[in-house]
Amino acid sequence: MATYDLHVTAADPARVATVLPGSGYTAMAPLLWYARGALHDLGWTIRTLEWTTAPSFDSARTAYAEVLGEDAPGDDTLHLVVAKSLGTLAMPLAVRLGLPGVWLTPLLTSEQAPDVQETAAELDENHLLIGGTADPLWDGELADGSDADVVEVDNADHSLEVPNDRAENLAIVEEVVSAIEEFALSFDED
Fold this sequence. Notes:
This protein has 190 residues and is an alpha/beta fold. The chain has helices spanning 30-41, 57-70, 91-97, 114-121, 140-145, 166-186; strands at residues 4-9, 12-20, 44-51, 78-84, 101-104, 127-132, 149-153.
Protein backbone atom coordinates (compact mmCIF):
# COMPACT_ATOMS: atom_id res chain seq x y z
CA MET A 1 0.00 0.00 0.00
CA ALA A 2 1.44 3.38 -1.00
CA THR A 3 1.79 6.04 1.63
CA TYR A 4 1.80 9.78 1.33
CA ASP A 5 2.16 13.04 3.21
CA LEU A 6 -0.16 15.99 2.73
CA HIS A 7 1.54 19.38 2.98
CA VAL A 8 -0.49 22.57 3.45
CA THR A 9 0.54 26.10 2.47
CA ALA A 10 -2.10 28.27 4.08
CA ALA A 11 -3.84 31.28 2.56
CA ASP A 12 -7.59 31.82 2.08
CA PRO A 13 -9.34 28.92 3.88
CA ALA A 14 -12.42 29.39 1.66
CA ARG A 15 -10.41 28.57 -1.51
CA VAL A 16 -8.35 25.39 -1.39
CA ALA A 17 -6.45 23.66 -4.19
CA THR A 18 -5.42 20.04 -3.68
CA VAL A 19 -2.45 19.05 -5.85
CA LEU A 20 -2.17 15.38 -6.86
CA PRO A 21 1.12 14.65 -8.66
CA GLY A 22 1.94 11.75 -10.92
CA SER A 23 3.91 8.76 -9.72
CA GLY A 24 7.12 10.05 -11.33
CA TYR A 25 6.17 13.69 -11.89
CA THR A 26 6.28 15.17 -8.41
CA ALA A 27 4.86 18.45 -7.16
CA MET A 28 8.41 19.82 -7.39
CA ALA A 29 8.44 19.41 -11.18
CA PRO A 30 7.93 22.60 -13.22
CA LEU A 31 4.24 22.43 -14.16
CA LEU A 32 3.04 21.65 -10.64
CA TRP A 33 5.63 23.84 -8.92
CA TYR A 34 4.61 26.95 -10.86
CA ALA A 35 0.90 26.10 -10.82
CA ARG A 36 1.02 25.82 -7.02
CA GLY A 37 2.88 29.12 -6.79
CA ALA A 38 0.45 30.88 -9.12
CA LEU A 39 -2.59 29.64 -7.19
CA HIS A 40 -1.01 30.60 -3.87
CA ASP A 41 -0.22 34.06 -5.26
CA LEU A 42 -3.94 34.34 -6.08
CA GLY A 43 -4.70 33.61 -2.43
CA TRP A 44 -5.54 29.92 -2.55
CA THR A 45 -4.55 27.56 0.27
CA ILE A 46 -2.54 24.73 -1.29
CA ARG A 47 -2.70 21.11 -0.14
CA THR A 48 -0.02 19.01 -1.85
CA LEU A 49 0.07 15.23 -1.78
CA GLU A 50 3.59 13.82 -1.76
CA TRP A 51 4.12 10.09 -2.24
CA THR A 52 6.42 8.54 0.37
CA THR A 53 6.21 5.10 -1.24
CA ALA A 54 5.50 4.24 -4.85
CA PRO A 55 1.77 4.09 -5.62
CA SER A 56 -0.09 1.56 -7.70
CA PHE A 57 -3.32 2.49 -9.48
CA ASP A 58 -5.35 0.92 -6.65
CA SER A 59 -3.37 2.48 -3.80
CA ALA A 60 -3.49 5.88 -5.55
CA ARG A 61 -7.29 5.65 -5.81
CA THR A 62 -7.47 4.81 -2.09
CA ALA A 63 -5.27 7.80 -1.21
CA TYR A 64 -7.35 10.15 -3.38
CA ALA A 65 -10.54 8.95 -1.67
CA GLU A 66 -8.98 9.89 1.66
CA VAL A 67 -7.61 13.25 0.54
CA LEU A 68 -10.73 14.34 -1.38
CA GLY A 69 -13.25 12.62 0.88
CA GLU A 70 -12.74 12.25 4.59
CA ASP A 71 -9.75 14.64 4.81
CA ALA A 72 -11.24 17.25 2.48
CA PRO A 73 -11.86 20.89 3.35
CA GLY A 74 -15.30 21.81 4.69
CA ASP A 75 -18.50 22.17 2.68
CA ASP A 76 -18.26 25.98 2.58
CA THR A 77 -14.91 25.78 0.79
CA LEU A 78 -14.29 26.12 -2.94
CA HIS A 79 -12.13 23.04 -3.45
CA LEU A 80 -10.16 22.78 -6.71
CA VAL A 81 -8.27 19.63 -7.69
CA VAL A 82 -5.06 20.04 -9.71
CA ALA A 83 -3.86 16.64 -10.88
CA LYS A 84 -1.11 15.33 -13.15
CA SER A 85 -1.06 11.93 -14.88
CA LEU A 86 -1.63 9.30 -12.15
CA GLY A 87 -3.34 12.04 -10.13
CA THR A 88 -6.06 12.16 -12.78
CA LEU A 89 -7.33 8.83 -11.45
CA ALA A 90 -9.10 11.12 -8.96
CA MET A 91 -11.22 12.65 -11.76
CA PRO A 92 -14.26 10.35 -11.39
CA LEU A 93 -14.32 10.89 -7.62
CA ALA A 94 -13.88 14.65 -7.96
CA VAL A 95 -16.78 14.83 -10.40
CA ARG A 96 -19.00 12.75 -8.09
CA LEU A 97 -18.12 15.13 -5.25
CA GLY A 98 -18.82 18.19 -7.41
CA LEU A 99 -15.21 19.42 -7.29
CA PRO A 100 -13.80 21.44 -10.19
CA GLY A 101 -10.50 20.24 -11.60
CA VAL A 102 -7.41 20.98 -13.63
CA TRP A 103 -6.37 17.71 -15.27
CA LEU A 104 -2.80 17.77 -16.62
CA THR A 105 -1.93 14.94 -19.03
CA PRO A 106 -4.94 12.84 -18.02
CA LEU A 107 -4.92 9.10 -18.61
CA LEU A 108 -7.36 9.28 -21.52
CA THR A 109 -6.14 6.19 -23.37
CA SER A 110 -4.95 4.00 -20.49
CA GLU A 111 -6.57 0.57 -20.39
CA GLN A 112 -6.18 0.72 -16.60
CA ALA A 113 -8.33 3.86 -16.34
CA PRO A 114 -11.53 3.44 -18.39
CA ASP A 115 -13.38 5.39 -15.69
CA VAL A 116 -11.14 8.42 -16.39
CA GLN A 117 -11.94 8.24 -20.11
CA GLU A 118 -15.69 7.96 -19.47
CA THR A 119 -15.65 10.81 -16.97
CA ALA A 120 -13.47 13.07 -19.15
CA ALA A 121 -15.89 12.72 -22.05
CA GLU A 122 -18.66 14.16 -19.85
CA LEU A 123 -16.75 17.00 -18.12
CA ASP A 124 -18.40 20.41 -17.90
CA GLU A 125 -17.03 23.95 -17.87
CA ASN A 126 -15.82 23.50 -14.28
CA HIS A 127 -12.86 21.51 -15.60
CA LEU A 128 -9.69 22.20 -17.54
CA LEU A 129 -8.04 19.43 -19.57
CA ILE A 130 -4.41 19.94 -20.62
CA GLY A 131 -2.41 17.57 -22.80
CA GLY A 132 0.14 17.28 -25.54
CA THR A 133 -0.27 15.95 -29.05
CA ALA A 134 2.83 13.71 -28.69
CA ASP A 135 1.52 12.12 -25.46
CA PRO A 136 0.24 8.59 -26.14
CA LEU A 137 -2.12 8.92 -23.15
CA TRP A 138 -3.80 12.07 -24.55
CA ASP A 139 -6.89 11.93 -26.75
CA GLY A 140 -7.55 15.37 -28.23
CA GLU A 141 -10.84 14.34 -29.84
CA LEU A 142 -12.19 13.00 -26.55
CA ALA A 143 -11.09 16.19 -24.75
CA ASP A 144 -12.64 18.46 -27.40
CA GLY A 145 -15.88 16.47 -27.23
CA SER A 146 -16.37 17.40 -23.57
CA ASP A 147 -17.58 20.77 -22.30
CA ALA A 148 -14.34 21.29 -20.37
CA ASP A 149 -11.88 24.02 -21.29
CA VAL A 150 -9.04 22.39 -23.24
CA VAL A 151 -5.41 23.36 -23.75
CA GLU A 152 -3.65 21.15 -26.26
CA VAL A 153 0.09 21.68 -26.68
CA ASP A 154 1.52 20.80 -30.10
CA ASN A 155 4.33 18.22 -30.09
CA ALA A 156 4.40 17.98 -26.27
CA ASP A 157 4.91 14.59 -24.61
CA HIS A 158 3.48 13.23 -21.34
CA SER A 159 5.62 15.69 -19.35
CA LEU A 160 4.24 18.46 -21.58
CA GLU A 161 7.70 18.95 -22.98
CA VAL A 162 9.16 19.01 -26.47
CA PRO A 163 12.43 17.04 -26.52
CA ASN A 164 15.61 19.11 -26.74
CA ASP A 165 13.89 22.50 -26.87
CA ARG A 166 14.44 24.39 -23.62
CA ALA A 167 12.98 27.67 -24.91
CA GLU A 168 9.81 25.93 -26.12
CA ASN A 169 9.50 24.05 -22.82
CA LEU A 170 9.70 27.28 -20.84
CA ALA A 171 7.01 28.76 -23.09
CA ILE A 172 4.83 25.69 -22.46
CA VAL A 173 5.14 26.11 -18.69
CA GLU A 174 4.12 29.76 -19.08
CA GLU A 175 1.16 28.84 -21.32
CA VAL A 176 -0.08 26.10 -18.98
CA VAL A 177 0.33 28.10 -15.77
CA SER A 178 -1.41 31.10 -17.37
CA ALA A 179 -4.32 28.85 -18.38
CA ILE A 180 -4.55 27.52 -14.81
CA GLU A 181 -4.50 31.06 -13.39
CA GLU A 182 -7.24 32.17 -15.79
CA PHE A 183 -9.30 29.09 -14.92
CA ALA A 184 -8.90 29.71 -11.17
CA LEU A 185 -9.84 33.38 -11.58
CA SER A 186 -13.08 32.34 -13.30
CA PHE A 187 -14.36 31.10 -9.93
CA ASP A 188 -13.91 34.61 -8.49
CA GLU A 189 -16.37 35.90 -11.09
CA ASP A 190 -19.16 33.61 -9.88
